[in-house]
Amino acid sequence: MNDAARRPVQGSVAGLWALAFLTIGAAWPAIAGPSREPSGRYVSRWLLLGPFEAGRPELPEVDATHLPKFEIDFLAGAGGERQARPRPGDVLIFEGDRIAWTPHEARGENVDLDAALSGADYVLGYAYTEFDALGGPAILALGSNDGVRVWLNGRRLWDFPHGRGLTLDEDLLPVVLEPGLNRLLLKIEERGNRWGFACRLLPLRQDVLSEDLRLFELQPRPDGQAELRWAPAAEPAAWLAGPVRVNVVRRRRPEEVVWASSWSGAREPLRLGVDAGVYGEYLLRLEAPVAGGLLAQATIPFVAGPSGEHVLFEAGRSDYRIYLAAEASEAERWGAEELKRWLQEAGGAELPIQTGGEIEGDRVIFVGWSPPAARRFGLGQPPAEADESFLYRSLGPSIVILGGRQRGTMYGVMTFLEREFGCRWYTPRVTVVPRRERFAFRAVDHAEAPGIRVRNDFYFEAFDSIWAARNKVNGAMSYREQPGGVEAYWAVHTFYPLLPPETYFADHPEYYSLIEGRRTADRAQLCLTNPDVLERLTARLLEIMRANPKYLIYSVSQNDWRNPCQCDRCQAIARAEESEAGPVLGFVNQVAERVEREFPDKFIGTLAYQYTRRPPKTLRPRRNVVIRLCSIEACFAHDFTACPENAEFLDDLKGWARIAPRLYIWDYVVNFSHYVMPYPNFRVLKPNIRTFRDHHAIGIMEQAAYQSRGGEWAELRAYVLAKLLWNPEADDQAVVDDFLAGYYGRAAPALRRYFDLLHNQLTPATHIHLGLRPDDPIFSEPFIDAADALFDVAETVAETEDIRARVELARLPLLYLKCRRDPARARRDGSYERLRAIEAREGVTHYAEAGPPHREAFHAMMNR
Fold first, then answer.
1. How far is residue 823's CA from residue 860's CA, in Å, rounded to a whole number?
2. pLDDT value, residue 61
3. Mapping DSSP to helix (H, G, I), strand (E, B) and coil, where does residue 45 land?
4. Which residue pairs from 241-244 have beta carbons closer than 8 angstroms and sit at least 24 positions apart in sequence?
5. Span 241-263, pLDDT tens digits
6. What is the pLDDT of residue 608?
7. Are residues 573 and 686 in the same domain?
8. N or C: which end of the chain has fewer CB atoms below 10 A?
9. In terms of Cα–Cα distance, which of 665, 686, 675, 692 is closest to 770?
10. Cβ within 8 Å of residue 59, ≥6 positions away
């Protein structure tokens, strides 16, 4: 080829039809030897032709179509692109330039057209090969830089008109190979930077029959619906081994099947049965049995119906109203008021609330089930009252938010505000609602269900009933008035509260533990095989249940120390069951059987805690007994499944999960000895909650700094735990980032670096427990110095005094650590003075679970 042929060819379109081919040389075998396709090897031997000028796009930033001259058939003079069958040395003559088909052999997977044809931009070229095939279905795997068009045996089977980088096997195309010789032609354009392609033929295997295999395609119809067609690259008769299973689901709620059918895969298209009268976003899911007993699967997104925009509010005005059923629950009414309040905060528009009656027009947000909502959205019966799952979706301009009356609808409202408007209720004191001039939608469609049934976020900040309702926290240790109510758990360590020694021990020492040959009530337990203990305790518990009917679970559980009864009857059960849980569970089962007669919808809970943590060998909890398993001995530097120290606890968890109809977890996320000291346990929160979920936990309580403000990362951890208890699959790091940005503003990047610095102190050999000490090796002087510097930055960039105060409260644990490690230095450098100022301003009363005595002792130490 001469130099002119290496440049983009100049000339008019009319001149192209004067091209002529001269055939020189012998036939060129594309594949040497007996190899037959599909082999899975990248094709290395090609004939290349080019470059040809392709023209510059009018708008270079738009690449929705090929380059301007791509549609010209540069091979028209030799029968055209469909009939191409060149041989080495065949010459194309155009306006005096001779361009020859040149053999090329790639050294790797890629064919580098920059090196083989031209380094110029806005050109195109051809690549041709022939190969011997076994015949039948196969997969053509192709990658190109940039756009490409493909012909196989004269049939156009694929076109990609956009710019892109070269990714191996990016296009997976179903093809049917002819037995013997096959012809493959590619036309590749160059938009700038690199130019090349890679191609191979793959045999049918299950691992390549993936979501990317283009067996099918969707074509829109003028009436707004869509038709399913067989991809032009394949023949259904050769590919299919049976009918295609067709399911249409909602894109945002893929668990809901909208329409299902079966299709033969014939050339007649299948019209998808979705409502074309309203806009909808869907996923088409296909399963096709193919040759060789394999199954091809595909998911294709599509829309149907008119895609007009619906304006909820603009410039502080709205034509919408909120609708409630006349018999709406208190929680639904509260949810409607929340919706009204926060929409007005977001956009300035006040939406009226209509309760009952007929509704005019379709600009309505229906909150909860109602006859008008049921008619408009085709709803069936209302969800169960206690169902916490919910959905919200639109039908044209109308929106429905639907869940159970108790909490489901209310949770749907809060999630609608979170997801669609960015509302965040970070703490009881701090809410963030982004302001916007306008909100419009084509469709909204979302559904959720709780990952854990009872969610008890046991932080001081999380006890605020409004914050808890907004963040879907529904569990509590003590009953509290809260929108939607709570699933409350009455008390813990109740043996002595139910049978107080000061009342009974003098006359009935036999009610209490036999320890080393004598009955004692001094830090002991009950004798659980004594029938009078059973009768008296049950009677007292029934009195409590009658007086406190709003609880879900009532505890009959060991005191918070050891010393179980050593009498012959109690120990016979413990030995037979190979666990001290045996006597406890046997006793609790009997109590549960008695109270069930009066309270069939209530539960009796007991602890699997310390000396009772191991499951019994043969005893099983009754259906109305809740086992509350405690992780107090665990390592919280590593999740339960990844740490040798946690192997025994994990075995006990698995054991209780096998036998307990209801398992409730008492987990720990705080350093009880030092609430206000760095405690790097965030990385175990999500995996541990998932482990509990996977072992059938109906409830989780995350015990934390529950008596006062000031706990280490307390606001952040309470928020993250609320999100993970509702959805154990939530992206916990994204939640952390969201909170830091929303709560700390411009200080967030520095605080995130401190957060990561703290957690990066952990290694596989590091183990932390509930009594992490200030002299632990993870708290090195370089760590403290680096942390101090990051907090200095965070305080400097804080944009308001409120945010600066939040940063200072986040710094309190570091100041406390410095005081504990070196009191004299902390007094000299001002750390102690700053700590006292923050403590007073924020009302911090507890530095540890021990409360004021611990805090007072700390200050006494600092002032000595």
1. 11
2. 58
3. strand
4. 241/289, 241/290, 241/291, 241/293, 242/288, 242/289, 244/216, 244/286, 244/287, 244/288
5. 999 999 999 888 888 899 999 99
6. 98
7. yes
8. C
9. 675
10. none
Among the listed residues 161, 121, 129, 168, the one whose alpha carbon sits nearest the alpha carbon of residue 49: 129
The answer to whether the beta carbons of residues 353 and 318 sit under 8 Å apart is no
Q: Which residues pair with 202 in a beta bridge?
A: 139
Same domain? For 194 and 280 the reply is no
Residues of the chain whose pLDDT is less than 50? Answer: 1-34
Q: How many residues does the chain have?
A: 864
Which domain CATH number covers 156? Answer: 2.60.120
The contacts of residue 828 (CB under 8 Å, 6+ apart) are none
| Residues 6 or more apart whose Cβ sits within 8 Å of residue 502 | none
pLDDT digits (tens, 9 = 90+) for 737-747: 999 999 999 99
CB 607 within 8 A of CB 558: yes
Q: Specify the CATH number for the domain of residue 546.
A: 3.20.20
Q: How far apart are CA 77 and CA 71, in angstroms?
A: 15
CA–CA–CA angle 137, 141, 147 (5° rounding): 125
Whether 361 and 321 have beta carbons less than 8 Å apart is answered as no
E strands, 422-486, in order: 424-425, 431-432, 438-441, 445-448, 454-458, 475-476
- Provide the pLDDT for residue 63: 65
Could you say which DSSP state residue 166 is in?
-
| Domain limit, last residue, from 745, 780, 796 | 745
How does DSSP classify residue 734? Answer: H
- 19 and 159, same domain (yes or no): yes
Segments forming the whole domain that contains residue 719: 484-745
Which residues contact residue 644 at a Cβ distance below 8 angstroms, ignoring those fewer than 6 apart?
Answer: none
How many whole angstroms separate alpha carbon 111 and alpha carbon 464?
65
The reported pTM is: 0.81
% of the chain at pLDDT higher than 90: 84
Domain of residue 239, CATH code: 2.60.40
* No. of helices (H) and no. of strands (E), the chain: 22, 40
Look at residue 603 and give its three-state secondary structure: strand
Residue 569 lies in a domain: yes
In a domain, 839, yes or no: no
Strand partners, 120: none
Residues 324 and 299 in one domain: no
**Is residue 460 classed as helix, strand or coil in its secondary structure?**
helix
φ/ψ (deg, to 5) at 467 = -60, -45
First to last CA, the chain: 94
Tell me if residue 433 falls in helix, strand or coil. Answer: coil
Q: How many angstroms from the chain centroid is the CA of residue 783? A: 32
Q: CB–CB of 365/351 below 8 Å?
A: yes
Q: What angle do CA 774, 776, 779 make, to 5 degrees?
A: 75
Strand partners, 129: 184
Give the single-character DSSP code of 128: E
pLDDT of residue 19: 37
DSSP state of 627: E
- The answer to whether residues 569 and 647 belong to one domain is yes
Give the chain's domain count.
Answer: 4
Does 297 lie in the same domain as 185?
Answer: no
Which residues, 6+ apart, have CB-to-CB distance to 624 below 8 Å? 592, 595, 596, 600, 602, 603, 604
Q: Is residue 541 part of a domain?
A: yes
Task: Specify if 430 maps to a domain.
Answer: yes
Looking at residue 62, its pLDDT comes to 61
